[in-house]
Structures are given as C-alpha cells and as structure tokens.
Fold this protein.
Amino acid sequence: MINGVKLTSLPIIDVEGGDVLHVIKSSDMGFIGFGEAYFSTIKCGSIKGWKLHHKMVLNLVVPIGEVKFVIFDDRVNSTTRGDFTEIVLSRQNYFRLTIPPKLWMGFKGVDECDSIVLNIANIPHDSNEADHLELNEIYYKWSSKNVEK
C-alpha cells in the first residue's frame, strides 16, 4: 500500500426494507474536515484519470456497482515512489479509501452496469488545486481487476 493511503472497513447494517451503509463520522481516522460531498458515476469499461490533488483529501466509497481505483506515487521523498496500489471497491468489498494529496489517482468502472462513487472531501472543489494527465502519460495496464484488502 502506498504511504498515506488508508483502507477502512465499513459496516453495512441489515435493516428491513433496505440496508444502512456507513461511510464516515467526524471521529473516524481519515476525517480531517468537511469541504463537500459528491457522487460521480462511471460506466462499465470507462476510465477516469489521471488526477492529482494538491490539497484535497479524498474519502471514496462505492455503494453501487464495482470500481477499480489505481493510485500512483511519484512523490520525490516517498519510500513508495514509483509504486502503484490497486483497490476494487463495491458493496461486496465495502471499504472507505482515503487518498491524501500529492498522489495520482484514476478509476475504472468494472461492473456490468453504471457504478456510483461517493467522495467526501476535506475542502470544496477548486479546479486550480488539481493537475490532470492523459491516461497514456502514466504507464499502467488497466485490463486487470485485482483487489487489495
């Protein structure tokens, strides 16, 4: 696992009529403030990436569908520089993925239908605090669907 990235197991509470899927509390590790929460959808086989936030901490959960997240570390003084971490999140693999600033991240929809990603970020969105690269600018083979727990 890349330094600073956290994977937190989350409870799903079976309730008659529909389950409760916990995400984050202010007392949880990984919570460092609230800026905004938003959903992002991704179609099967689609890839979104690469993106690096300079200030934003991401707290990602996939309540519907299945999404493969890939994180790449190119931080100069990091002991995990040059490493990739791959994590597939879904309701069956229900975790919160916390990604600190300064790491490249991309994700791919791997379910047969559209998937939903929830991000609870520590700051509001600011397009000036993120960098983007084309998919081919970081070499990674997107075809596999490995799961790290």
In short: The first strand starts at residue 6 and ends at 9. The domain at 6-134 is CATH 2.60.120.10 (Jelly Rolls).
